[in-house]
Write a structure and sequence with these properties.
The chain is of the alpha/beta class. The protein is built from 14 helices and 6 strands. It folds into 2 domains: 179 residues, no CATH class; 92 residues, no CATH class. Bound molecules: zinc ion (ZN).
């Protein structure tokens, strides 16, 4: 079992376990999002929400994720996060199974610590009863324990966590997304946009959320090893990627994918390179069973 870290790409694990466990995780991963209301209606409910718990409740009730805990985050930031996840679900419903948790980093780490101890309340909250009884589930407990060792605050900004499907997550650091840090974080994102560090229309919280979701899709669809993505990455070269997408996109193939996805989802008029990457993403997504 080995955690893999690539800049802000977050973590993913590979491990060996009885096939029965992987079969159960596969069923879990294949859960699809079924919209119960229109996206506009959902956005309206989020705009009208007056507390973090109400935002979490809307996300859970509309089946955007298994667990949504915005505790410790700024309310405006929480609304941005859930709106992005909602838009994502309406565009890519087959990814629903990988959105086990959306919310604050600290609350996620707290839950994973309890999951490592096989806490029944948290097992139920994540809908893991069936999986947790399976032979080999101890491996999942080890991953949960590993994540539970994190501080839960500071130095993360935002991350996509891929845990083979049992507790995959999109997490946000209270240090940046909490009431004390959010205003400064917004100023930083605006500055990064002006200096070309991040893509067009991605100088705000929305851009970061889609960037992390881009990492998640990368892991799910193995995009960093996709020949079409690699050919595109090599054909453009560093200078053109910086000019046509962003400077941060030159760091690695995975950041290139995340930045392109962020522009594609955030900008009213995404540029050609973002469109080209998005086309490859859509093709890879269409092959997900
Ligand atoms: Zn990244």
């Amino acid at each position: 079992m080995a955690p893999k870290d690539d800049k802000d790409k977050g973590f993913s694990w590979t491990f060996t376990a009885p096939q029965a466990l992987f079969d159960k995780l596969d069923v879990r991963k294949r859960r699809t999002f079924f919209p119960l209301i229109t996206e506009n209606n959902l956005v309206g409910k989020l705009n009208a929400a007056s507390s973090l718990s109400e935002i979490g409740w809307i996300a859970k009730e509309r089946n955007l994720c298994d667990v949504c805990d915005m505790g410790g985050l700024d309310i405006a930031a929480a609304k941005v996060i859930v709106k992005c996840v909602a838009h994502m679900m309406y565009c890519y419903p087959k990814l629903r199974g990988r959105f086990c948790y959306v919310g604050s980093y600290s609350r996620y780490v707290e839950r994973l610590r309890r999951l490592a101890e096989s806490d029944e309340e948290v097992i139920r909250e994540f809908g893991l009863q069936y999986v947790w009884q399976s032979e080999g589930a101890g491996f999942l407990g080890m991953i949960a324990r590993d994540i539970g060792k994190s501080t839960g605050k500071g130095g993360t900004l935002a991350s996509a966590i891929c845990t083979a499907g049992f507790a995959d997550a999109l997490i946000f650091d209270e240090s940046d997304y909490g009431p004390a840090g959010y205003r400064d974080a917004c100023k930083n994102w605006e500055y990064n946009l002006k200096t070309g560090y991040h893509p067009r229309n991605c100088g705000h919280a929305t851009g970061v959320v889609y960037h992390e979701i881009g990492h998640m899709i990368d892991t799910i669809c193995s995009l960093s090893a996709n020949p079409a993505i690699l050919a595109l990455w090599r054909s453009r070269g560093e200078d053109r990627i910086a000019a046509e997408l962003s400077r941060y996109a030159t760091v690695s193939v995975s950041e290139f994918i995340a930045e392109a996805f962020s522009e594609y989802m955030s900008a009213p008029y995404p540029r050609l390179l973002a469109h080209e990457v998005a086309k490859i993403i859509k093709e890879a997504y269409s092959k997900i069973k």
